[in-house]
Amino acid sequence: MSLIWLLGLVLAIAAVGYALGRTRALSSTNGDIRKLHSLPSYYGANVALKSAIPALLVLVVWLVAQPLIVSGVVSSDIPDSAIPEGSSRGLVMSEVKRVAAGLDGAVAAGTMSASYAASAQADMDDVTKRMRDAQQITPEALTPEILTAGQRFRAMVAQGKWAMTAVVLALAVAGAFWGLRESHAEFRARNTVERVTKVLLIAAASLAILTTVGIVLSLVFNTYEFFTMYPPLEFFFGTTWAPSFSGRGGSSELGIVPLLWGTFYISIVALAVAVPIGLFSAIYLSEYAGPKVRAIAKPLLEVLAGIPTIVYGLFALLTVGPLLVSIFGKDGFGWMQSGTAVMTAGIVMGIMLIPFVSSLSDDIINAVPQSLRDGSYGLGATKSETIKQVVLPAALPGIVGAILLAASRAIGETMIVVLGAGAAARLSLNPFEAMTTVTAKIVSQLTGDTDFSSPEMLVAFALGMTLFVVTLGLNIFALYIVRKYREQYE
Amino acid sequence: MTDATNNPPRHKTSLHTVDARTKRRNASEARFKMYGMTAILIGLAFLAILAVSIIRAGTPAFTRTVFDMELTLTQAEFEAAEKQLMKTKAYQAVFIDQLSAKLTEQNVQVAFDGKAIDRLLGKIGGDLRAHYRANPGDLGKPVQFTLPASSRVDGYFNGKVTRDTLVDSRFLEVSDLDLVDALHEAGIIHSAFNWTFITAADSSVDNPGGAGIGASVVGSFFMMIVVLGLSLPIGVAASIYLEEFAPKNRFTDLIEVNIANLAAVPSIVFGILGLAVFIQFMHLPNSAPLVGGLVLTLMTLPTIIISTRAALKAVPPSIRDAALGVGASKMQAVFHHVLPLAMPGILTGTIIGLAQALGETAPLLLIGMVGFVAREYPDGLAEGFLNANSAMPAQIYTWAARADSAFYDKAWGGIIILLIFLLTMNIIAILLRRRFERRW
Amino acid sequence: MYDARHTEAQVDQTETKISAKGVQVYYGDTHAIKDVDVEIADKTVTAFIGPSGCGKSTFLRCLNRMNDTIDICRVQGDILIDGEDIYDRRVDPVQLRAKVGMVFQKPNPFPKSIYDNIAYGPRIHGLAKNKADLDVIVEKSLRRGAIWNEVKDRLHAPGTGLSGGQQQRLCIARAIATEPEVLLMDEPCSALDPIATAQVEELIDELRLDYSVVIVTHSMQQAARVSQKTAFFHLGNLVEFDDTTKIFTNPEDPRTESYITGRIG
Amino acid sequence: MYDARHTEAQVDQTETKISAKGVQVYYGDTHAIKDVDVEIADKTVTAFIGPSGCGKSTFLRCLNRMNDTIDICRVQGDILIDGEDIYDRRVDPVQLRAKVGMVFQKPNPFPKSIYDNIAYGPRIHGLAKNKADLDVIVEKSLRRGAIWNEVKDRLHAPGTGLSGGQQQRLCIARAIATEPEVLLMDEPCSALDPIATAQVEELIDELRLDYSVVIVTHSMQQAARVSQKTAFFHLGNLVEFDDTTKIFTNPEDPRTESYITGRIG
Amino acid sequence: RDNVQVAGSSTVLPYASIVAEAFGENTDFPTPVVESGGSSAGLKRFCEGVGENTIDVANASRKIKDKEIKACAENGVTDIIEVRIGYDGIVFASQQNGPAYTAFTPSDMFNALAPKVVVDGALVDNPYTQWSEFNADLPAADIMAFIPGTKHGTREVFEEKVIAAGCEATGAMQAMIDGGMSHDDAEDACLAVRTDGRAVDIDGDYTETLARIEANPNGIGVFGLAFFENNQDKLKVATMDGVMPSTESIATGEYPVSRPLFFYVKKAHIGVVPGLKEYASFFVADELAGPEGPLAAYGLVSDPELAKIQAVVSDEVTMGGGM
Ligand SMILES: Nc1ncnc2c1ncn2[C@@H]1O[C@H](COP(=O)(O)OP(=O)(O)OP(=O)(O)O)[C@@H](O)[C@H]1O
Ligand SMILES: Nc1ncnc2c1ncn2[C@@H]1O[C@H](COP(=O)(O)OP(=O)(O)OP(=O)(O)O)[C@@H](O)[C@H]1O
Ligand SMILES: [Mg+2]
Ligand SMILES: [Mg+2]
Ligand SMILES: O=P([O-])([O-])[O-]
Questions:
Q1: Are B368 and B193 spatial neighbours (Cβ–Cβ below 8 Å)?
Q2: CA-CA distance, E194 to E100, in Å (whole number)?
Q3: D104: domain range?
């Protein structure tokens, strides 16, 4: 039975359980809903959950565990002599698996009988030929050991599958009966269902934690490795970023300071563009614009978030950079040497971030109760005064959230930085000079040509880790600010 | 209550004459409103500039120059070709021979040789071979073929290559353009709408005529299904728990900060995580949209959670009180009342999060979706999720890096398709959001 | 003019429905309810009176654990309903609130249609078998809430588009639609004209036959008219709790007397 | 007990402050106010009475154009204040509302501190030169709003954490802090105990010396106590508008009579 | 898994894509998947171990390093077949209509781009702003060079074969040693590039360099030969030491700036992953990698010793000699 079928069956049992649970609960009070503790649908849901969740959990665990177990058993049975030199047990196992699949395919195509596939031992060439006839991929030279292992593998997989089907279905049915037995008037079905729902909600929330753990884990070992090769002090306080090729005696200077500075500078410029434009757009959309303008302008602005960053990068390189040079360059103020600069990247990134601020803030501003606005208008406040002093403070947490999101995006962006701000790490106050960011360097060090166990490559992980910690600090600060100034309405 | 008289009422003023202070306030009001309008206009102007430049740069991708010719391949030629290592080259040679013969027969007044025709042709051997392998009955019979010309000929037709700027090279010589003109006159080559671009998969760097975005659209589609199917429910569920049920303590603060912080993790780091967890640990296949979708889900979750939480926070507590007061459970109050009211914010988060996910390349680099990947359409759902495929931004990114500038046009054309995809994807969310928007 | 009443009838000793002992409520550091003991009888209307800010709403919200929703609010002491401690960990606040309905001081209709506002409670409690049943419940509740005539033509218009008094009656109708055993009403007639007030009072009187009703009111007249028992709160203390007639004619505490004669506020 | 008043005093013919002619208000298709003509005199308290949902709040909100904020609301007819049409295009609603203050039916304190709630108006209108000035204004307004004693120790606590009646008085204090020429009060005492009500009525009486006050009330007694003129609304119509004493003793329209005697609602 | 999986260098990617496409069109094997992501990332995944869920082939634009071979071995990847597919020429090109940058020497590049140069026998901070200031034959145009960023292997070639050579030729290296530096330090110091904005690192692809050149008439950029040849109508190339870059001059070694390109095959996967060996031999077949093949047509400099390499593939000769 294929997986889809099994899944379908479990769900079908759950669905039937739902219907039965409902009716059973109802009939326990002779159809009087009011005597039930919970709505009939909760009794149904209780049965459905009890039959589906354990069964599906077992199914998932089984699906993960069975291949591991079967491979383990089969692979430990392969004699060492069957493993060619230079190969590995793992590779032989993949051959075994391929043979098993080939046998399956051959049986399906009719070039082998089922019993032949299960037991043929003598003639390797014949087996190979029959598999080839069925358009199966075969090992170049099939050995008896591999064939035996393949057959064993096939048999075990088949058994496992039957066992799994049986166990899962039995669990589903048992769960359904358990749920059905509970379906009587006094049973607190709603509470049970809600408890399960809450567990699901908690599981969803834990995913964020898991992701964080995963990220930290995937960074931390390589970071440690990096620090065994490169002095941490120089990394954290070095003011020069000049990686060179490890083949040449490791003369790299890997100071994070210029990169952090570039990140900070470019993000500030980007936010200086995105926050006012985004916030004012949000205010205009939610407070001034008519429904028609709003219905059109808001989704249009959101398109800005969906344009691939490479387009923004090219826009920075080809349009904004030269434009800025013509104003601030030699012919203008003389502050700018070339088109790639903090300003170029910052402005373009700011454009991309407009919808992050505008759309989210717009929703939050819109959610501020009208009575607050009325209160302010009633005192003779103008619309703008009302917005500035009543609406925005009430919407503050949401707006800060939106700005943080925009800032996060600015910190995480690469393409615009590479094309707009250049790749050179520099520590300068002049926003018309080229700089680069931590993220851009993470990407370039990770995808570069240097050898993968050199500090020049591993530094990418240390950069990632540092950035993670720095932004964590910023977020804690933001949370503190929000807590301090939040105005909770009603 | 006596001191009322100490404070004489302010001088009665006419409503029609605006006093100085009000004038100032009104001016500031007008300014404020103007800032808002300007902000929107700036945003829209940027959008317009970007849109115009995208469309201008991208339209050439939608036309191509094709050869229209009848070809007869004999059984002998077929067998000879199939014996070669580079079979496709042999097919191409047959085509060139027959075209030369035809030109001679038609008495074209331009000097040409096989090499010149080869320079004008795109890579057509693959198409020819595929055709005859699929239809052996066509051998020996004349068959009408429509095959792509080389990218330089394309450039000549859309004005990018001119006789003045062209430098003789092995790719094209100035004299070849006379041949192009002659062929054009003879009706053998002409421009046509480039369906291939919309339907085909990626092609190699020397074959711009065969390149299409279709397969990667499918890849993106499956990825977005994963992202939407996972990040929206998980994100909303997580937000509901954190905002409505979680006890307010240090630990939930930690989670809150953590989620905000996840949003700031560079997307390539999610790629590192995805490679480690999904491919190396869970043994999911390389380059699979399922893996891409999972990685992008992790990346999109913070966006959705942050916006959902903000939206949930904005729902007035009196609504919750009202529901609890009639005996609804907290769960019911949230799902029946609070969630619908928070819907606009949730949908906005989804729109923005998906837009971001759709355009992201960096994490795909690490899980193998960037490069020369999409070659076949998947048959069926399971393959769609599991077979190696590319995604639109990855495709665009690789095209943009290729040397032949014809791919540059394709990259922009791909961006147009991506934006159309994005708009289609968002339209439902946008309409839904409008339905849920209300003031209270 | 308020004649067709059962008022003078059974003030006989019915059993205790709610009994509160040593209840203390804090909002952060503010001590809002100070050691209140009270016994609320079944099938009786109990009025809470007292100056604004004395803690009436706070105490009322303790009785169905609505205070749980205010983060900074802490409740101490015992509150028993039908002899069961409602702050016990085994008690499901949801069931409690289904049993103890509430009309809030500030009308808070759902931003849904009038029909759905009323139908929500019956739906989640499974009080109606089908649509027709539900229609009947909605109409009956709106009629008892004395608002049917005004809204019968706009049942599907949003509840938030009603006038202040209409919203108040809508909330009353919503609360009785679920047929709670105890009904807590926080100034249910504050925005109502005398006629509507009379209708609501009639409703309360009628509810008393089966249920226990607690009403917060600022109108001494109203308290006198509808209640059998009256509790007088002052600065978070329960100053006096007795038969209504006793309180209004012969209060024991000087503060009560000053209040009902209009001397302290 | 409500003695120290200027009530019987000047009901003499002062000049007209507000005059409304042929006012019609629609909410979408609902015709909420039907052709109302009314003249509100300066230095007078005018009471609007009428059953719940008859359009009192709606009409009140027309007088300072608060209806502008409701999308579906359309107002027709002329409303003149000091002889100037407030719906004229030259009129700035902001200036209008500074001149015509309002207390809403549902208390709506800002989610700010109590102090900032009061100081908000004076700040935007520039009524205080400095912090000390503002402190004076805040204290005075809170005192006049009869809430100073309750909040003087928690001026920097959020206004939303007050009890219902306290919020109502806070909103009254907030409205008078800007010293409007006309004060519209929509059921300002609905959540107040008798003492607080008396204090607010005293305030109204005092305000009348300089300003024009319009008050919506459901309490006939209150209307009789504080107002010199009374308008009776019914189903969107202005049924009768006359001296308060006349209305309550000798109404012309049978509907008015039925209402004040408690027969129609 | 029934297809060959390849990952690695973005420089090799174009050639690999041509081969992969042709392999799919001309054989019955499925088209290999070729991922890009950089030599280092590709080798890293290559060395993660043997088995179905690891890649079969890693492309690299440099030779695998000893450290990497060691890391590979630790993970059980011991038998690696190294296949050199040809050479990548590195050229200096500028806008068609820009100043006449037609001939450079390493010394010119060093003088233009080093932070310290020798002027009148003394080592001083680079004072030059125009090319003509140190070489009258060069145009009087502002110095502006777009050089590969430090992530690129091309940077290494550029530093070693151009800058370091210039350093020695101009006498700067000697000046440094005379100034008290050790020989090694001086060698390192020679590779430095000025940081005042006249030498711009490009972390992106050649298309980015091209875009920068187009936006900057005075700019001179570093490109791969294939890229330049594909864009001859936009770019003009300069000679180095008087040699014009071309496939011939690079193949013979006359033109100094070039580097070999490789791919690495896991021997253990041969025979397990269908089509792997066929792919490797297809790649280096004369029809593809030969001077007349499509790879050369695209711009790869064919390996003059292609026959040897074909033998390596067909005999599955692993690195370090073993069979
Ligand atoms: N926003 C609105 N949308 C639609 N109808 C409304 C709206 N506000 C009020 N109405 C309707 O207009 C009529 C008049 O309402 P209004 O609020 O003026 O009554 P009211 O006299 O103030 O009543 P109450 O004493 O109950 O406050 C009512 O029928 C009401 O339902
Ligand atoms: N959420 C809150 N946070 C802080 N203090 C509160 C909160 N709610 C009420 N209080 C305070 O608790 C006290 C009692 O308030 P409560 O609302 O119970 O008064 P009340 O008797 O209902 O008054 P009213 O008649 O004005 O409604 C008041 O001093 C009030 O300011
Ligand atoms: Mg209260
Ligand atoms: Mg009203
Ligand atoms: O991608 P590369 O390793 O060739 O730079």
A1: no
A2: 23
A3: 8-260
CB pairs under 8 A between A and B: 308
Distance (Å, whole) CA A465 – CA A256: 12
What is the structure's pLDDT at A89?
A: 76
Q: Where are the alpha helices (DSSP H) in A307-453?
A: 309-315, 321-328, 342-366, 370-378, 383-386, 392-394, 396-412, 415-416, 438-446
pLDDT digits (tens, 9 = 90+) for A468-479: 999 999 889 888
- Single-letter amino acid, residue A460: A
Number of domains in chain D: 1
Instruction: State the residue for tokens 């009719």.
Output: A110
Choose the most confident range, by mean pLDDT, from A139-143, B68-72, B381-385.
B68-72
Considering only alpha carbons, which residue of chain A is nearest residue B414? Answer: A308
Closest residue (by CA) to atom 4 of ligand 1?
Answer: C161
In a domain, D30, yes or no: yes
Vertex C234: Cα angle to C228 and C240 (nearest 5): 40
Distance from CA of A478 to the nearest CA of D (A): 20
- Mean pLDDT to the nearest integer, E141-161: 87
The pLDDT of residue B177 is 87
The reply to whether residue A363 touches residue B440, judged by beta carbons under 8 angstroms, is no
* Position E298 pLDDT exceeds 70: yes
Among B214, B268, B220, B202, residue whose Cα is nearest residue B402: B202
D119 domain residue, yes or no: yes
Instruction: Give dist(CA C257, CA D14) in Å, integer.
Output: 42
Residue D40 three-state SS: strand
Q: How far is CA A322 from CA B41, B57, E98, E142, E215, in A?
A: 23, 19, 17, 17, 7
Chain B nearest CA to A11, separation (Å): 18
Provide the residue ranges of all domains of chain B, joining segments of one domain with +. 20-59, 64-201, 214-436
Residues within 5 A (CB) of ion ligand 4: C 163-164; D 57, 105
The answer to whether C72 and C22 are in contact (CB under 8 A) is no
For residue E206, list chain B residues with Cβ-Cβ distance below 8 A: 401, 403
Q: How far apart are CA E260 and CA E88, in angstroms?
A: 6
Identify which has the larger pLDDT, A374 or E203.
A374
Domains of chain A (ranges; CATH) run 3-217 (no CATH), 253-489 (1.10.3720.10)
CB contact under 8 A, A190 and C125: no
Instruction: Of A27-36, D113-122, D231-240, give the lowest mean pLDDT range.
Output: A27-36
Residue B232 has a pLDDT of 94
Report which protein residue has its CA nearest ligand 5's atom 5: E152
d(CA B10, CA D188): 24
Which CATH number covers residue C177? Answer: 3.40.50.300
Of A242, A268, A305, A234, the C-alpha closest to A421 is A268
**So what's the pLDDT on residue C3?**
42
Verify whether the Cβ–Cβ distance A380 to D178 is below 8 Å. yes
Q: What percent of chain E has pLDDT over 90?
A: 27
Helix A455-485 crosses helix A438-446 at what angle (to 10 degrees)?
150
Whether C3 maps to a domain, the answer reads no
Contact between residue A196 and residue A47 where contact means Cβ atoms under 8 Å apart: no
Mean pLDDT of chain E: 88
Distance CA C84, CA B329 (A): 20
What ipTM was reported for this prediction? 0.90
The second-level CATH assignment, the architecture, of B214-436 is: Orthogonal Bundle (1.10)
> Is residue A324 over pLDDT 70?
yes
Could you tell me if residue D17 is inside a domain? yes
pLDDT band at residue B374 using 50, 70 and 90 as cut-offs: low
Q: C98 CB near a chain A CB, below 8 Å?
A: no
Instruction: Decide: pTM greater than 0.80.
Output: yes
Read off the pLDDT band of A38 (50, 70, 90): confident
CB E238 within 8 A of CB E104: yes
